[in-house]
Design brief:
heterodimer, A: mainly alpha, MetI-like fold, B: mainly alpha, 8 helices, flat
Chain lengths: ~220, ~220
């Protein structure tokens, strides 16, 4: 192997990479929060809305889940201006990610809602629990227990998917990596380091999410 | 700049054959790799399990786009130049190996351990037990999630357009650069992906329901 590794350009760019890492986190977190809000509304509509609304939500889920995120980003960024809605690359990236993540989130939240049986609430009433106690102990905690693992994997999927937003030059890690690559020509070095950064991010969240689950959501021992 | 003609749309639709072909190649490559990973993950030797777990963590913990970039640039370190299609096939196969390996490990472990004990008591060694007793039962469990992953794989091929492989998404970009009718072009492209993926998703779900009824 005659290739000489040269990481100087990559390490010289560390302030840029650090900022991009923060931007990736901000983009993922905002898409997750907005996506969850849409998912909760969508799940309510999907479970208890009128028939036409349930149909629309089901078809939306199918359409998004059966097309690539990259095409969804292109439709939002290049397609919507043709219909008179011009978005900056950051807003377009956020919108595409929210639309994408909600299609998965709705099904997860719906499963959470459906995991609570009516009999459980009635049992709580019969035991003399107050409404707030019923909500906290019988509805909220089991529902979160039921959806927590899926929601955390959804977040990590979203975090990794933000890299696709580099194609429209949104502010995030992969786009900055491409910039550094195009001025230093150190393709392997930059993508290797950035891949490691993504691995650190996802491992960090895996550990944190597992810790939170153990500390707060573990089921009582029987 | 010109209006997109029927020929342009046909060019996009026809490019879907490269998407399908790449998906099949990656599924074959990923199937071989995934079988190895699944066997390694269920091995009796600890270090073999650790290596397989590490492989899965790395490929599930980094973006597919980065994996494709590295598949494109790493051969250059050895002085080999690879065509985009080869980098795409290798990158997607390595990625699919991790996901299929994890799916199939779950299926292998779902086969009741009594089946292992029964085979051992019949005097069967590891290979015949795995090949004749465990794997055939695991296949039934594994098919629905495998089809689900196939949908992810087809969608994943769209990222190979970024390293320059001309498939469905890249064809759409080429037409878009010439005509600037972005909404129509990308909507048509989305529909082509939908036409490939929706039947697969529906089929996978139907098999899953059937399996659930069967094991009840």
């Amino acid at each position: 192997m005659s290739y000489e590794f040269d990481f100087t350009d990559v390490f010289a760019a560390w302030p840029e990479l650090l900022q991009a890492l923060v931007d990736t986190l901000i983009l993922s977190a905002s898409a997750m929060v907005l996506g969850l809000a849409v998912s909760i509304l969508g799940a309510l509509g999907r479970t208890s809305g009128p028939r036409w609304l349930r149909w629309i939500i089901t078809e939306y889920i199918e359409l998004i889940r059966n097309t690539p995120l990259l095409i969804q980003i292109f439709v939002v960024f290049f397609g919507l201006p043709a219909l008179g809605l011009k978005l900056s690359s950051n807003v377009a990236a956020l919108l595409a990610l929210v639309v994408n993540v909600a299609a998965y989130g709705i099904e997860i939240i719906r499963a959470g809602i459906e995991s609570i049986h009516k009999g459980q609430i009635e049992a709580g009433k019969a035991l003399g629990l107050r409404p707030l106690q019923i909500f906290r102990l019988i509805v909220l905690k089991p529902a979160i227990q039921a959806v927590y693992p899926s929601l955390t994997s959804l977040f990590i999927m979203l975090l990794l998917n933000t890299s696709v937003c580099s194609v429209i030059a949104a502010n995030e890690l992969t786009a900055v990596a491409s910039n550094i690559q195009s001025r230093s020509f150190r393709s392997f070095e930059i993508y290797f380091v950035v891949t490691l950064l993504y691995l650190c991010l996802s491992t960090f969240f895996w550990i944190v999410f597992a810790g939170v689950e153990r500390a707060f959501l573990s089921k009582p021992a029987r | 700049m010109r209006a997109p003609e029927t020929a342009d749309l046909l060019f996009i639709v026809m490019a879907a054959r490269w998407t399908v072909l790449l998906s099949l190649v990656a599924f074959l490559g990923g199937g071989l790799g995934g079988a190895l990973i699944a066997l390694a993950r269920t091995s009796k030797r600890k270090w073999v399990r650790l290596v397989a777990t590490g492989y899965i963590k790395v490929f599930q913990g980094t973006p597919l786009l980065m994996q494709l970039f590295l598949a494109f640039f790493v051969p250059g370190l050895f002085g080999w130049s690879v065509e985009p299609w080869a980098a795409a096939a290798i990158g997607l196969s390595l990625n699919a190996s991790a996901f299929l390996g994890e799916i199939w490990r779950g299926a292998l472990e779902d086969v009741p351990s009594g089946q292992w004990e029964a085979s051992t008591s019949l005097g069967l060694r590891y290979v015949p037990t795995m090949a004749l007793v465990i794997a055939p039962q695991a296949v039934k469990i594994a098919i629905p999630p495998t089809i689900g992953f196939l949908v992810e794989l087809v969608k994943g091929t769209s990222l190979t357009s970024i390293i320059g492989f001309v498939e469905l998404t890249r064809a759409a970009q080429i037409v878009n650069n010439a005509t600037f009718r972005a909404f129509t072009i990308f909507a048509v492209t989305a529909l082509v992906y939908y036409a490939i993926c929706r039947p697969l998703s529906a089929y996978g779900r139907r098999l899953e329901q059937k399996l659930r009824v069967g094991t009840r």
